[in-house]
Design a protein that fits this description.
The chain has helices at residues 80-84, 117-120; strands spanning 12-18, 22-28, 37-43, 50-56, 87-94, 99-106, 124-125, 129-133, 144-148, 156-160, 173-177. By secondary structure, the chain is mainly β. It folds into three domains: 12-56, no CATH class; 80-148, no CATH class; 154-183, no CATH class. A three-stranded antiparallel beta sheet has the order 5-6-7, with no helix packed on it. It has a two-stranded antiparallel sheet with strand order 1-2. Strands 3-4 form a two-stranded antiparallel sheet. A hairpin with a 3-residue loop joins strand 1 and strand 2. The longest helix has 5 residues, at 80-84. It holds the Pfam family CD45.
Amino acid sequence: QGTTDDGVPEESTVPETFPGGTPILARNSTAPSPTHTSNVSTTDISSGANLTTPAPSTLGFASNTTTSTEIATPQTKPSCDEKFGNVTVRYIYDDSSKNFNANLEGDKKPKCEHTDCEKELKNLPECSQKNVTLSNGSCTPDKIINLDVPPGTHNFNLTNCTPDIEANTSICLEWKIKNKFTCDIQKISYNYRCTP
């Protein structure tokens, strides 16, 4: 076994004998061989028989043939939960229309992508409920928020319930319902904010 001028190991052939005295070529090589298989033909001069034996071949030259393989993979859409994050709805009461407008708030500053979304967040009647889709196919699954509109502020009175004898040391405030409404009373919470 030797090497060619470019340093590639040459293959050596060793005759083997099959039954019937038919010589064939055995191919041995220390060079790594690709998975390609070729056919080698040998002819026995004495009998005129033609034998074909599959054998691995080793390529010791550069090829000009290039194979380009492109695999088209469908683009996956991002998660809507990741895109929009946690969405909080703040309801702002409009005294003139007695309706609410909903503002979206959250850590990722959510905005409507759906064309009708902005309209659906305006002029909401008290105690109404509806689902609004924020996304417009840009992510999956669709981001849908549930609007659960509170009762209007005109339904409540804030009264001072502090006894006169304790007026210098404490304060008592109480919300009283003055109009009936259809909202679930269990969902209502009251917040007090004191300003100087």
